[in-house]
Amino acid sequence: MKLGLSLIWALLILSNLICGAQEIKNGQLQPLTSGGAKVIPDSWSMDSLDTSPMLIKYLGVSYGKISKTQTLDIYLPNLRKEPTAVIIVVHGGGFSMGHSRMKTDVSPMLEGVKRGYAVVSVNYRLSGEATFPRAVNDVKAAVRFIKANAENYNIDTNRMVIWGGSAGGNLASMVGTTGNITYLDGDNRENLNHSSSVQVVVDWFGPCDFTSFDQQFQKAGFKEHNSSIGENSHESWYIGQNVLKEVSFTQMANPTTYIKTLDPGTAPVFLIQHGSLDPVVPLQQSIDFYNALKAKLGDKKVTIKILEGAHHFSPEFLSAENLSYVFDFLKDAL
Q1: Is the N-terminal amide bond of 133 cis, ω within 30° of 0?
Q2: d(CA 215, CA 225)
Q3: With CB atoms counted within 10 Å of each terminal CB, which end of the chain scores lower, N or C?
């Protein structure tokens, strides 16, 4: 029987994690050297956004015909003449929960409307409806839909950002590394004359290698943490079987798998952010992804910022300071 995400969070909140000084040496997160403090994940909510302040919006727009889930919400800035850059938002929720108007996951990106961006928030098929790679298929189809309908919404398809947190970070990174890989289009046949490539990826603490969660947490000194291994983990539900049953298949859900196909000249720019005390997705996941991207694309195409003391979707990510950092990064990248 699948445990509800709320119960998992409750169990995590009751857990104590040892924390202390961390450093990166040779691309590896070193074990914690001091302890005693408690690490408690921040609350995660399914509450919906208040979209009433958004004057120009199109909600529940269909981008696919396979499922009623295949919809997106479009928010446009006011008083614009020229086509605008767009931020495509991919919500989190362990691939099994969530929706395109989740306040926790979408409100940071909606700040982009105030800064002159169009913002498009995407629903995709969750693991209870369809397993991997359907969520990837859906998000890629949503990107193609935006390109095909860009004139209708005055969107500049040469300035496209995809931004997601947690599961959404994985899916955003999958789009970033597979923009021209058509076999991941799946059964979504709409707008195939357009690619799903984008110019910028913002990956907030997205999982990359579901098979290594436990080892990485243990090496970092976490006594209590999320485990991706087991029939009832969110990651196994997403893959459709225990993540260790067929590792070669599980690795197809790892954006690192596709880095070798990237052209450094046309690949997106990546910004990766992760909390140093994340008990849900190991920090080492983002470090490994960063190192692999840097080896292929070089320093100018990938940036990592570790938020010291931050947990999973904790306030440090949503602070005015950090959002200014991200939007400044987008301005420079575009």
Answers
A1: yes
A2: 11
A3: N
Q: SS3 of 154, please? A: coil
How many other CB atoms are found less than 10 A from the CB of residue 302?
A: 23
C-alpha closest to that of 144 among 174, 167, 175, 105: 175
Give the residue-averaged pLDDT of 112-116: 95
From CA 258, how far away is CA 133, in angstroms rounded?
14
Give the burial class of 26: count Cβ atoms within 10 A of its Cβ; 0-12 exposed, 13-18 middle, 19 or more buried. Answer: exposed
- Name which residue leads in pLDDT, 256 or 230: 256
> Which residues in 129-158 are b (16+ Cβ under 10 Å) and which e?
ebbbbbbbbbbbbbbbbbbbebeebebebe
Architecture of domain 53-333: 3-Layer(aba) Sandwich (3.40)
pLDDT at 55: 81
Single-letter residue type at 288: D
Q: What spatial distance separates the first Cα and last Cα of the chain, rounded to whole Å?
A: 46
| Whole-number Å distance between alpha carbons of 26 and 218 | 18
| Token code pair at residue 231 | 């029939």
